[in-house]
Amino acid sequence: MQAEPQGFDRVLSSMCTEPHPVAREAAERFLATNPGDPGTYPTVADLEGRAISMLGDIAALDDPAGYVASGGTEANIQAVRIARERARKNDIESPSVIMPESGHFSFRKAADVLDVDLTIVPTDDDHRVRLDAVRDRANEETALIVGVAGSTEYGRVDPLGPLGEIAHDVGALFHVDAAWGGFVLPFTDTEWTFADVPVDTMTIDPHKMGQAAIPAGGLLVRDEALLDELAVDTPYLETTSQATLTGTRSGAGVASAVAAMEELWPEGYAAQADRSQANADWLATQLAELGYDVVRPTLPLVAADVPTPTFEALRADGWRISRTGTGELRVVCMPHVSRSMLESFVDDLAAIDECTPTAATTDD
Q1: Are the CB atoms for 153 and 126 separated by under 8 Å?
Q2: Closest CA to 94 of 118, 116, 120, 119
Q3: What does the DSSP assignment read for 197-208?
Q4: Angstrom distance (rounded) from CA 191 to CA 185
Q5: DSSP-derived secondary structure for 149-189
Q6: Which entry of 175, 237, 272, 328 is 20 to 30 Å from 265 by CA?
Q7: What's an example of a GO molecular-function annotation for this chain (predicted)?
Q8: Full set of structural domains in the chain with CATH
Q9: First to last CA, the chain
Q10: Is the backbone of residue 66 left (phi > 0), alpha (psi -120 to 50) or beta?
């Protein structure tokens, strides 16, 4: 029997979503193309240039360079790789990376794969990196400092301007991980772009809030010369060098990213950001009224202290939910998450509370 993909009607904790119809159609048309071989597939290579140009518009980068990656993990690994290679050229024998505890787990993978030291610094009570902790640990061995623009657990944005200044004061590069937040932050007053802060490299993923088909991540660099740190010879291809991590890549992801951005930037994304934030604010209010401690959303992500029995009961009801590292329920208000979907979720939660009256006040 042919398997069917899971629907999104009860998915509340994913940072991916249903592709926009134009993105889905573009992905299907370019399934058999490989932007990793631009000499053979020039059309999709041109589309990749268009994708990077549009990502540059979103992130306010005047002369954008980069490529469409498989996702945020690859882009983050590549940012670390750029910093490591640059540090080695500057005779730094043991380059290190500093990131907040709110940073994505992909940086742990990067440190392991690339054999660099990873220093994890604490966050404050609002789940943003503590600048004093970064200053205390930054030194001449620091190759890269990471700032988060839309954390995966609480949707928080680090103080990116001061963080970038600390990085450059010690001669390090500054990387901003805006994999999820990059398609929401343009419609806030947050300073996060290349025009706002001294960022050198950035992760920004069209296949998250950008509504492109998977896989479609993005790596942007302020200076195209930074990509030279990644280049390797490719003598049997029509092009002679390659800066990407993978060789063969998905033309489907490239084409769908372009289609989604051309369709939705900026008005469509602005409207979606407003809907998502309104849904997050509504859900936070409902959870608080049920008696749960809620981490108030600054971006469309809600965390609340739902105890384990209640959480497991919601999972048993078919809700696809997850927890933060410290155990809170985590709900991401992606484009597929409607108000009626959230109303159904809150109704189920309230019904569970009626069966277990102390659920909202009992610790795990």
Answers
A1: no
A2: 116
A3: S--SEEE--TTT
A4: 8
A5: BS-TTT--B--HHHHHHHHHHTT-EEEEE-TTGGGTGGGSS
A6: 175
A7: pyridoxal phosphate binding
A8: 21-264 (3.40.640.10), 266-353 (3.90.1150.10)
A9: 41
A10: left
Is the whole model's pTM more than 0.85, yes or no? yes
238-269: pLDDT as tens digits: 554 567 788 788 999 999 999 999 999 999 99
pLDDT digits (tens, 9 = 90+) for 186-206: 999 999 999 999 999 999 999
Encoded amino acid at 70, one letter: S
CA distance 66 to 236: 23
- Tens of pLDDT along 10-32? 999 999 999 999 999 999 999 99
Q: Say if residue 134's pLDDT is above 60.
A: yes
Q: How far apart are CA 206 and CA 355, in angstroms?
A: 42
**Cα 65 to Cα 14: distance, rounded to the nearest angstrom:** 29
Helix (H) or strand (E) holding 84: helix 72-89
pLDDT of residue 5: 80
Q: Which residue has the tokens 């004061």?
A: 169
Q: Which two tokens stand for residue 250?
A: 């998905």
Neighbours of 130 (CB within 10 A): 17
> Are 295 and 84 in contact, with CB atoms under 8 Å apart?
no
